[in-house]
Structure formats: structure tokens, C-alpha cells
Amino acid sequence: MKTLVPDPSLIALGGIYExxxxxxxxxxxxxxxxxxxxxxxxxxxxxxxxxxxxxIHEEEVVGALKQLLGDAExxxxxxxxxMDCVSNLQPIATGVPLRRLFTGGVTNPFDAFDDxxxxxxxxxxEQIDQxxxxxxxxxxxxxxxxxxxxxxxxxxxxxxLLPTFWGWDAASGxxxxxxxxxxxxxxxxxxxxxxxxxxxxxxxxxxxxxxxxAKYEWIARASTRNLRDWIADKFDTLQPEIIAPSRGCVLQGxxxxxxxxxxxxxxxxxxxx
Length: 273
Description:
This is MBL fold metallo-hydrolase. It is a single chain. It is built from seven helices and 16 strands. By secondary structure, the chain is α/β, with parallel strands linked by helices. The chain is globular and about 55 Å long. The protein starts with a strand and ends in a 5-residue tail after the last helix.
């Protein structure tokens, strides 16, 4: 567990995995370690979990939630319906009381788990698509209440493959970027899972681009001007203190955030090739 702000209202949960050519979402030849992240927000009777981490980290995630929640209820917001985000839904639902589940897109992540139907959690699902028609008829919401006066604002980013959602928590200054900004690597499992010091940050623009293309290989052939403009405007407007991806190191501190946004914008820029 890692508290990301001075108070315990934002905590990073999850475990560490070793990079190798068996990990499909990193560049070929990658070595080192990365955290798989989910994030617990709030400090009252109701908490919100952003994603649920990898299945290999079930014990770390569920154990931490039981320790931290006490008698508080839990809701979950999934940034994507892919297994690196939803894998621990079933053990969490078995181990702690769940109030609501926020998902987007037509594909229902519950379909991957037999026990979910028996626990009738489908009735607690709320659709978070912001606009468009089709799919189901569930209520749609562009924001999630974490606590009275505190909301997580939801937006679908331009940079995505499948239905994907980012979250913005103004109270902590954290932006949850799902499978973007996933380039932060640790040399050893004992290293910090948070990059918060420019002097000790050895991330390079080339590294950012390689990780970006490992997931979004079409970027190299795409016209990215709108993507770059959208990202630049988003970060100029929000001025986040924390970038919280679903995997890779958390980026904390205004200067660190600025550097890594610049790296991403450069990685998205057209190349001579």
C-alpha cells in the first residue's frame, strides 16, 4: 500500500510483476518490474476503488481492502473492461460488501465471472458512458460521488482502443489514466512504485514512446494532432498533482507530471519516418 497524498484519502494498492517478453503490453526486451495499480479513494463510510488489479495480486488487493475498509461500504469504478482492470472483481465481491459498480461500454465485465450472477451484482451496475446511444438502458453518469462534496469526474479519452475512461479527483489532484502513462519501470521490486523526484527519474522520451507503441501500435501511422491537442489541453486545464495509471509507476508532483506529459506529447509527435 502507498498513500499518495498527506491524508489517507488516496491509496495505491496492488502488487509488483516482473517484466519479460511474456508481458504483452510492454516493449519487446523490457526488463525490470512494474506495479499493477488500483486505487482506494475516500475516508468515510463509503469508499471508491478505481480498478481491481491483476489476478496474481488477489491476496494483496483483497487483504488491503479488508484492512482499510473496516465497516465502510465499497464501490468500484472500472476504467476498462480488460482483465488487468477487472480480474479481482469476484474475490473482492466475495470478501467485502459492495454497493455499486461503475462500468462503461457495451461489453459487461461481469460476464467473465460465474459467481457474479448468483450475487445479483448486475443490479448494482451503473453505466458511465457519457454520450451516444445503444448498449443497455441503464442510467448513465459522467461523475461518481465519493463522499458528500467530493466527486470523481469521468471522461472518455481520445487515446484509447476499447471503451476506456479516465477519472479526475480534484480533492487529491489525481487523474486516473488507465492504460496511458504506463511507462514507469522499477529496477528492483524494492524500489518505490512512485516517481516523485526529478533527480532520481531516469525515464526517457524513447522509453515512453516504446511503451506507448507496445499498446497503441497504430500511433506510428496515425495523424496525432488532435490527440496531442486534447492531452495538452486536458493537463493545462486540470493541472494535476498525480498521474495514476492502471500499471506502471505512479507519477507524483507537479514537475514530474509536467515532464512526463511533455514526454508523451513528444512520443505522439510525427517522426521523420
